[in-house]
Amino acid sequence: MEQLECGKAHTVIVVSDSQQSKRIYAFGHQDGLSTESSTHVPTLVTINKLGETNADLKFIHVRYNTSIAVDRLGRIFMWGENTSSLKMRKPKLFYVFPSRSIEIKQLVLGRRHGLIRTNEPFGAIYGWGDGTYGELGVTEGLPFEKPQRLPHFEAVEVVSVAAGSRHSLVLDSNGQIYAMGDNSED
Is 34's pLDDT higher than 70? Predict the structure, then answer.
């Protein structure tokens, strides 16, 4: 087993073999799965654009009822619930960075938002989702349907990001923590 992630009521695992082939399996409540019903038996998740071996799969991330897979080409695939609570039974291509030089270093999810940390200078942060509680650090133009660069962090050397239900945290290279949103839940 290469990776294990748990959501609110579902689990996603990545299993790899000696030939660099990777398989994604999911089980649990149907809201976070790519199936029509809940299952306690690990079920193969197929992401057509990753090919039969999923060799380009970089990592997965799971939170609440959402599952995400990121590949080495910078493509983000999503299934389960999106940030508008719409159900996606099959993994769909959610976003691709316009430049191949942008590498996704970290991706985290809150209940209705997500953050991405990249390899760009100063560890640029992108966010998407609802933003109602200030969890994206901006107040205009919300919601963001697709990742948008968050301007507050353009001069900050970001080393890590985290997300709770309705809040986000950003850690800089000096050990300073930036908090955004409402942390009254999760």
Answer: no
